Amino acid sequence: MGFPDRIERTVDVAHPPAKVWAALTTAEGLSSWFGNEAKIDLRPGGSASLTWSGGFTADLRVERVEEPTVFGFTWHIYGLPDDDPRRTYVEFTLEPTGASGTRLTVVETGFAQLSEDAYRKAFDGNTDGWAKELGELVEYLDAA
Amino acid sequence: MPPDVEAIAEQVFVALADPSRRAILAELAAGGPATATDLADRLPITRQAIAKHLALLSEAGLVIAEPGERRRVRYRLRSAPMQVAQQFLAALARDWDGQLDALKDHLDQITKPDTQKPNGQEEEGGDPR
User: Fold this and answer.
1) What is the pLDDT of residues B3-25, one digit of tens each?
2) Does residue A43 sit at the B interface (CB-CB below 8 Å)?
């Protein structure tokens, strides 16, 4: 209790699913509301990236593409080291409503996951970080 | 949800709630491993208080004592629990409300090409995290 693993939001928009789908799954759409620049290879396993004006970039991996109802991707958890394997899964679901509306649901899950490796690191006495990295650099330089 | 995640995050937040412990962790993060004496020299905290806080932080797994002779023992930060707490903060910092508002605005604008620029409109270009 207290540690949110799942974030869910639902919004109703007065636009048909095809239009919402384009906003979610094309570079042009994504760069208009999500990031400042976007690239996307729209197929399961394809990669996508979002870049913001501050120079921050998020790399996405496309997971589900079921036009025009389900679009899912995973991305890195902000603040964790780049090599951390933990990623959250984001899934957009589009349902038509009325004559030309869409109920859009976004669910992001995985914040509370603790991978086997992270579990071990969090609990055992294994110490890593800069001291270890620098030690490895010294060994590398010594060997060269 | 694994209860362990909750327990680890809680220890981090409890540790960070105390200004002296926050100062000790910040000093170890900024300057690397240090002895209790080093920390007492650098921080406006008595050596006795530092020893007490280091014992608590060590018990919680947030710092680890490097092997060494008594009073020369250096403490270093353990980053793994911090990364667990970071996941909690990442969930709180995710701004889907703002992003979905931006999506709605975008959809409204592209349906009114006569009154709005068809593309390239300036949205709040913030990092969503």
Assistant:
1) 577 888 888 999 999 999 999 99
2) no
The ipTM of this complex is: 0.76
Sequence letter at residue B46 = T
Give the 3-state DSSP-derived string for B92-111, with helices as H, strands as E and coil as C: HHCCHHHHHHHHHHHHHHHC
Torsion of CA B26, B31, B32, B38, to 10 degrees: -90
CA A11 remoteness from chain centre: 20
CB contact under 8 A, B79 and A129: yes
Q: Against a cut of 0.90, is the pTM above it?
A: no
Q: Are B106 and A32 an interchain contact pair (Cβ–Cβ within 8 Å)?
A: yes
Q: Specify whether A90 is located in the same domain as A124.
A: no
Instruction: Give me the residue from B1, B5, B93 closest to A78, CB to CB.
Output: B93
B22 touches chain A (CB under 8 A): no
| Tens-place pLDDT, residues A85-122 | 888 999 999 999 999 999 999 999 988 876 666 666 65
C-alpha angle B74-B77-B81 in degrees, rounded to nearest 5? 145
Q: Which residues of A touch B105 (CB under 8 A)?
A: 33
The CATH number of the domain where A12 resides is what? 3.30.530.20
**Residue A1 falls inside a structural domain:** no
Same domain, A102 and A130: no
Structural domains counted in chain A: 2
